[in-house]
Amino acid sequence: MPLVAAAGRLFLTFLAAAGRLTAFTAVAVSNAFLPPSYPRQIARQMFEIGYLSLPVVGLTAIFTGMVLALQSHTGFARFAAEGAVATVVVLSMTRELGPVLAGLMVAGRVGAAMAAEIGTMRVTEQIDALTTLSTNPYKYLIAPRLIAGLLMLPLLVLVADVIGVFGGYLIGTYKLGFNPATYISRTWEFLEPVDVFSGLVKAAVFGFLISLMGCYHGFHSKGGAQGVGAATTTAVVSASILILTFNYIITELFFAR
Amino acid sequence: MTPKIQLTDVHKSFGPKKVLDGITVDLPAGQSLVVIGGSGSGKSVLLKCILGLMRPETGSIKIDGEEVVGLPQRERERVLRKFGMLFQGGALFDSLTVWENVAFGLIQGQRMRRAEARERALAKLAAVGLAADVAELWPAELSGGMQKRVALARAIASEPEIIFFDEPTTGLDPIMADVINNLIVDCVKQLGATTISITHDMHSARKIADRMAMIYKGRLTWVGPAAEIDASGNPYVDQFIHGRAEGPITMELRR
Ligand SMILES: Nc1ncnc2c1ncn2[C@@H]1O[C@H](COP(=O)(O)OP(=O)(O)O)[C@@H](O)[C@H]1O
Ligand SMILES: [Mg+2]
Predict the structure, then answer these.
(1) Is the dihedral of CA A13, A15, A20, A25 positive or negative?
(2) Interface list for chain A against chain B, based on CB atoms closer than 8 Å
(3) CB of B30 closer than 8 Å to CB of B194
(4) What pLDDT is stored for residue B198 in this prediction?
(5) Cβ < 5 A residues, ion ligand 2
């Protein structure tokens, strides 16, 4: 039964990895709530994650909003539903594409940078040095990144929502011939608080996951530059997969009846 | 008097590989022990076990008579306040400037005010022969010798009772190596610290050591006063200090 044995081994490896990740998360989160905390580090991470991600998230959002308007207009023309363009744009942005695309872009930008930075600190013994200087690396390195990820992603997504809707508005009014006032009122007409709120919840979860993956894989990287490179790739890939998985789960929790 | 550092039968393995295989040694307060031994013989692992960065499988490690193996995090932080460590590669924080590196233990560990910690850092930098204009540079902008000196300043900044030096002179030119040796001797004398240094540079070892120990195959094959190293009667020590390829220590070369 070599196949069963192999499957069993794979399952055990998976369980061990899941156990390690859970333990890491528990230690990191509990350390985030216990004093001392490092406000300077939190501020720096908020700047890195929030402010420096604005250009890439903004660009993603505007083109997404524009293409949504164009696609839904040409598609919906087939059953004479062009009027729904504004609604489709705003619902798609706030509920799905804002959080997911911002999450994926930030995972590529920030998750990779975190894994590389922390991984380098690990292999050059800077994390050991932190410990010997009586500083808990979970508090100093990990907790600020988790907190910053959790807080900044919702803000980024809010910005993405607005810019995406604006992109749709540009195409809608300049190219598809909507009356600006009509387009705007259509945008608001069917929008409900839960659409935006669910997107922000997703964003907070994604932000936490991005930081968690960046920190976890960086923290456990070994063996020099190659190890750090591997950690960086793994951090981005695992964060992206987790984002898509949790996107489904959260959607189900909010909207499935 | 209780020894400052006391190791009893310390074992540490990585998987099937035994790195420390029963290390026993005492170090009285104020003494300076130099551990010599080949690359990969477990010298750094020994220091990391004492610091609690790695946990030995069995054996006891006592600092001032207090057992430290398996201490919980908070207790560990308290014990670590007694220590300063100069890492093999320097391990300077590359996201912080030179003075912030030196002041790190003071600001984060002891919660000293930044302005005050900066003054202390500048004084320590001066003590290792670095001018104040270096303070604002980033570690990446420094030469190897300067990085070692900054790392040394960081290790002594909190005026610890125990200082570890992991290969402080490896990779430096002979003159810079001697400068570092002198700095170590001066700093240690001034602080009255207990130290363990690791090196495979015999010149450096002779300069720093009160006592010497040689690690081979996970054990200390010889421990004795530094002055007796040349008359140890131990074939491993003799081979090492004379740097001979022939002798009881055989490098596992694959052909
Ligand atoms: N974290 C680790 N994981 C696995 N093996 C390690 C680890 N740290 C050290 N080793 C192994 O332990 C041995 C001793 O390493 P080390 O103490 O760094 O040697 P050195 O005497 O040159 O300082 C080496 O063979 C090394 O491969
Ligand atoms: Mg070493």
Answers:
(1) positive
(2) 36, 38, 117, 120-121, 124-126, 128-136, 140
(3) yes
(4) 93
(5) B 44, 88
Domain range list for chain A: 40-255
Spacing, Cα B45 to ligand 1 middle (Å): 6
Using alpha carbons, select from A190, A169, A188, A189 the residue that is nearest to residue A179: A169
Which tens digits make up the pLDDT trace of B119-164? 999 999 998 888 989 999 999 999 888 999 999 999 999 899 999 9
pLDDT over threshold 80, residue A1: no
Residue B123 · residue B106 · CB < 8 Å: no
Q: pTM (2 decimals)?
A: 0.90
Has residue B80 got a pLDDT over 80? yes
B36 lines ligand 1 (CB under 6 A): no
Q: Is B43 in the pocket of ligand 1 (CB under 6 A)?
A: yes
DSSP state of A92: I
Chain A residue numbers touching B163 (CB-CB < 8 A): none
The strand pairing partners of B222, in sequence order, are: B214
